[in-house]
From TrEMBL, chain A:
Keyword flag Translocase: no
All copies of domain Carboxyltransferase, residue ranges: 5-212
Assigned keywords, A-Z: ATP-binding, Hydrolase, Nucleotide-binding
Taxonomic lineage from the root: Bacteria, Pseudomonadati, Pseudomonadota, Gammaproteobacteria, Lysobacterales
Gene Ontology molecular function terms on file: ATP binding; hydrolase activity
Protein name in UniProt: Inhibitor of KinA
Pfam families, alphabetized: CT_C_D (PF02682)
TrEMBL record, chain B:
PANTHER family named in the record: 5-OXOPROLINASE SUBUNIT C
Protein known as: Antagonist of KipI
SUPFAM superfamilies named among the record's database cross-references: Cyclophilin-like
A GO term, aspect molecular function: hydrolase activity
Pfam families: CT_A_B (PF02626)
Keyword hit for Iron-sulfur: no
Source organism (scientific name): Dokdonella immobilis
Domain Carboxyltransferase: 24-306
Entries under InterPro entries matching the protein: CT_A_B, Cyclophilin-like_dom_sf, PxpC
Length: 231, 323
């Protein structure tokens, strides 16, 4: 695993720490290991720690650092020291495991057959492969609580729909390229929808509001019982 | 005390200073698009900076006051009357019980802010009263205001007299806010270089009709990247200038998504976000290169001007004491 990193400006009140430019599980594990470390002794000026696939943004309250003549430089040094230090093995990265029941196919998964055709396998095999893998929440983005899950069987990879759907149902489980994900809320979306879960992924009134945290792991089970539609 | 919404306006939302701390969960900051104007509106009515205000986009709502109230309107120049009497912006105005405050079209600028003494009695969600329109929470049920809504007002320090009265003093928002065309917006370098970097600064950019609280769609010269290779999604911020494949940049505003896959070619400085919030579809802007040191300097200057305004407002004799 490469231990190199670079720190870039992200506007005037955020820094971006870069481990790489690719969707690489090792780089992503490193992102979450460092995010966990930074979260442990979190200074008051650190507003947000935002993990992505191979990068990590820090949003900074410059007014809390008003005593510093070069506040962003001070933060850059603080971050560099931690990124260069001994980070715990990514295998020990903090995170919980979640098992999510999914109803595959039919009206819940209108693109399941298209994914099967694209992969050259039958729909049962798509479900078997989709439920067999353990995924990591590489990041939450696009929408509140939307998980980008990496670790999918390569054969299930399929490009996004040429024309996005205007109305994807809440709880829809989709495939976008090499990733799988879940739409927390009804809305437009371009991923291939293969199933749906009744699990509520995001509720602002809940603590924490998002069911899944960045760095958590997820597996799916096929749920043939009738599910209540998510709120 | 409460305010009833008789007509909604184009997109009238409750906003405060935004919702930091949740970008890792995919939750953006939201908050007033023009924080400069909303802060002054709050100060004029004696509210703390963090109180929620009503943000008005291009066409305003019609509201009815259940009790006498002190208000202030800042930001865009907006047509405003209370029972037919003109209500000027950038100053304290006391309105009587039962007044109908009719806010019409924004004549110049795009976002006006209405602060009410005491502030809106709404429960914060994830630490903020701002409406997150994309995620559907915060403000009033996570949505724009609609006719028939009723907003409760907290008791303020000031007990408004039951009469229509306009303070003779006003705040001049220049140089932080003007409506001159083209607007001048200063930007810091982004991560992704353009094939012809000077193209960004050479001409004027037009604000596209599809612009909203998430971002301004800019139309101008078609830009190309030095390196057009594939990219994976990375964090983005309000102020980030993204370049989608069609070559027309998007300047992200307060409702920016937390991550984006498009290249980041520049970042507008925080000092100029209020001016960006006031741009109307079809209006023009110019981009100027800026350094981080200059951005920090400009931001400190703006903060000092705001602090001086706050002192001037606090030291001015109360409206009722003038007689």
């Amino acid at each position: 695993m490469s231990t190199g990193f670079a720190i870039e400006d992200l506007g005037e009140n955020a820094l971006l720490l870069r481990f790489g430019n690719t969707l690489d599980p090792d780089l992503n594990a490193r992102v979450h290991a460092l995010a966990g470390e930074l979260g442990h002794d979190r200074p008051g000026w650190l507003l947000d720690i935002v993990p992505a696939f191979a990068t990590l943004a820090l949003c900074i309250d410059l007014e809390a650092l008003a005593g510093e003549s070069e506040p962003l430089e001070a933060v850059r040094r603080w971050l560099a020291a931690r990124a260069a230090g001994e980070i715990r093995s990514p295998k020990e990265a903090p995170g919980r495991h979640h098992v999510i029941p999914v109803r595959y196919g039919g009206s819940d998964g209108p693109d399941l057959e298209a994914v099967a055709r694209h992969a050259g396998i039958d729909t049962d095999e798509v479900i078997r492969r989709h439920t067999e893998a353990t995924y990591r929440v590489a990041m939450l983005g696009f929408a509140a609580g939307f998980p980008y899950l990496i670790g999918m069987d390569r054969q299930l990879a399929m490009p996004r729909r040429a024309t996005p759907r205007t109305d994807v149902t809440a709880g829809s489980v989709g495939i976008g390229g090499a990733q799988t994900g879940i739409y927390p809320r009804r809305g437009p979306g371009g991923w291939q929808i293969i199933g749906r879960t009744g699990v509520d992924l995001f509720d602002a009134a809940r603590d924490p509001p998002a069911l899944l945290g960045p760095g958590d792991t997820v597996s799916f089970i096929s749920d043939t019982a009738k599910t209540e539609p998510p709120r | 005390m409460s305010i009833g919404i008789l007509a909604a306006g184009l997109q009238t939302t409750i906003q405060d200073r935004g919702r930091p701390g949740y970008r890792h969960l995919g939750v953006g900051s939201a908050g007033a698009l023009d924080p400069f104007s909303s802060m002054i509106a709050n100060r004029l009515v004696g509210n703390a900076d963090g109180e929620a205000v009503i943000e008005i986009c291009l066409t305003g709502p019609t509201l009815q006051l259940a009790r006498a109230a002190r208000i202030a309107l800042c930001g865009a120049q907006i047509e405003a009357t209370a029972d037919g009497r003109e209500v000027p912006g950038w100053r304290r105005v006391d309105l009587e019980e039962g007044s109908v405050l009719k806010l019409g079209a924004c004549r110049r600028g795009a976002r006006a802010y209405l602060a009410v003494a005491g502030g809106f009695d709404l429960a914060p969600v994830l630490g903020s009263r701002s409406t997150d329109l994309r995620a559907g929470f915060g403000g009033l049920d996570g949505r724009a205001l609609a006719a028939g809504d009723v907003l409760a007002i907290k008791a303020g320090h000031h007990r408004a007299l039951n009469r229509f009265e306009i303070d003779r003093r006003w705040i001049d928002p220049a140089p932080d806010l003007d409506f001159n065309q083209p607007a001048v917006v200063r930007v810091l370098a982004g991560h992704d270089a353009l094939r012809e970097p000077q193209q960004l600064f050479a001409g004027e950019w037009q604000v596209g009709a599809a612009s909203n609280r998430q971002g301004l769609r800019l139309q101008g010269p078609c830009l190309a990247l030095a390196d057009a290779g594939e990219r994976v999604s990375e964090p983005v911020m309000p102020g980030t200038l993204q370049l989608p494949p069609d070559g027309n940049p998007i300047l992200l505003l307060a409702d920016a998504q937390t991550h984006g896959g498009y290249p980041r070619i520049a970042h507008a400085i925080a000092t100029d976000l209020p001016r960006l919030a006031q741009l109307r579809p079809g209006e023009s802007l110019r981009l100027l290169p800026c350094t981080r040191a200059m951005a920090q300097h400009l931001h400190n200057d703006q903060r000092q001007r705001l602090a001086r305004m706050a002192i001037a407002i606090d030291q001015a004799p109360a409206l009722n004491e003038l007689r």
